Amino acid sequence: MGESTVNTQESRTATPPSPIPDEAARPATEDPPGPPEAAGPRTAWHRRLRTPRRPRIWFEILLIAVSYYTYSLIRNAVPEQKAKALSNADWIWRTEHTLGIAVERSINHAVDSVTWLIIGMNYYYATLHFIVTIGVLIWLFRSHPGRYAATRLVLFSTTLVALLGYYLYPLAPPRLMTGEGFIDTVAHHQTWGSMASGNLKNMSNQYAAMPSMHIGWSLWCGLTIFALAKAPWARILGLLYPAATLVVIVSTANHFWLDAVGGMICLAFGFAVSALWYGSLPYRLPRRVATERPERPAERQEAY
After folding, report:
1. What is the reported pTM?
2. Residues 89, 70, 257, CA angle at the centre, nearest 5°?
3. pLDDT at 210
4. CA–CA distance, 287 with 190 (Å, rounded to integer)
């Protein structure tokens, strides 16, 4: 009885084994874990590059100016393959008839009969495409600096992949098709409403209709406003803007419905690139960016 009592007490007071294995028990072939810095400078550089930073106004103006100039240069440098572009337009038109969505000509004729409406659409097509896009970029720069770079990357990636579409798939707009009865609303009403019509037709590649960047850019604007604006009326206008743009590009015979689908696909590619780079959709990133200026010791003492 005495021995069993002693053994029981010893078992109760015995120290439980430590969950941390003894260093001596570690296998000889297992390397000890390295310090956190073992990831190397490349990881730190990559993380820093992907971290949103406060945009600089001079750099953004220069970047946008150079990018748009390069985009226009490349777009207009794509050979104007008239025969191929018209052939592709015929195929698109036949495909839309098969799908039962070939109503562009009816819309074009109906809207053209209302003079004030079609003239307004001509100017809408020529101006708002740039004004609204630049306005949204300025708004992002001022109010959402933490999301600016990621959202701008969406726009740039969308435009870049569109250039590939212009080169690989030349397409004539409906107004340039022969024998289909589409009305070139700019030429008909003698308005300045398109960089690819009238006196300005030599300044732009007329056979770069697929994809439609009017849809790609306007949908980028609309989604950005809808996701980030606080006022309900602003969010509603954000959704109406790409819808109105779709009506305009069809009414003025500058694009088919399927050109708009191409623009949406390019925008989806742009969002994918941005999400892969920043690890999140741009609208989910923090609105503000953390200051990059290191805190000084004197400032830390004053804080306490």
Report:
1. 0.75
2. 25
3. 94
4. 46
